[in-house]
């Protein structure tokens, strides 16, 4: 996860395109008064210190008396620390002062490194790199339904069919000379294969899922080095998939086609992947500029 490098004036923090897992990035806020739009008020107040992964407000347990508490997750430990020091004891948007503390290490604190969904990857990239500081495009998006040996038994009408798409996406950071690729699989069930509209809808869902997960996969190889003066450096940190970054587009399309028989390797687990799905949006075009 994000970590600190160096010390003194040159201190820097590494921010990854991952779900924040460290307790030093998580703030606990309590003494909150009930009000409409509480989470929105918290987001407005705390996002001034840096990009937020999540804001969750909860009603106090009965033994703690009336009121609410909130858990706020930052991507950066530095931002979380600044927010805690500035906001603790302040009223912010309510009449009584809030108490804000950085979460202490707790047993069983989630340390699993989860990929960030594509919407949040784009938010983070926009914040640190600027809307014009990166772009993405779809290299290939292929229907691979049926390649993993699905067999439909005669008379078996209850078996759910599904549609699968395999996508390769390229992310470019022109100012930093970095180019990475991600490959991922998207799958959606077809409830009623006799209904043409249902097949089309499931296909669109699978395509959007594949594009989103491939975009997320490409961002996983990028490390943001946030310096104390606010400037951002970028480091390319390839995973076991770095082969995909060195291939020509034709070679990559060929590799994707060859790999259709072992689709499981591209079926990435992704945190909150459902937030990538919107049935109202159109599919991203093959050229997907960030602005």
Protein architecture, described:
There is one protein chain. The protein has 291 residues and is of the alpha+beta class. The chain has six helices and twelve strands.
Question: What key attributes describe this structure?
Answer:
four-stranded antiparallel sheet; 291 residues; disordered N terminus
Put the structure in a nutshell.
With 291 residues, the protein is α+β, with helices and mostly antiparallel strands. The protein contains 6 helices and 12 strands. The strands form 3 sheets. Strands 1-2-10-11 form a 4-stranded antiparallel β-sheet, with no helix packed on it.
The neighbouring-strand order within the major sheet is 1-2-10-11
List the helices and strands in order: EEEHEEHEHEEEHEEHHE
Radius of gyration: 22 Å
Q: Which stretches are low in confidence, meaning pLDDT under 50 for 5 or more residues running?
A: 1-9, 148-158, 270-291
Whole-number mean pLDDT: 79
Broad structural category: alpha+beta
What is the approximate shape?
Answer: flat
Main sheet overview? 4 strands, antiparallel
- Residue share in helix: 10-25%
How far the N terminus sits from the C terminus, by CA atoms, comes to 27 Å
Helix count, DSSP H or I runs of 4 or more residues: 6
What is the number of strand segments?
12
Beta-strand content estimate: 25-35%
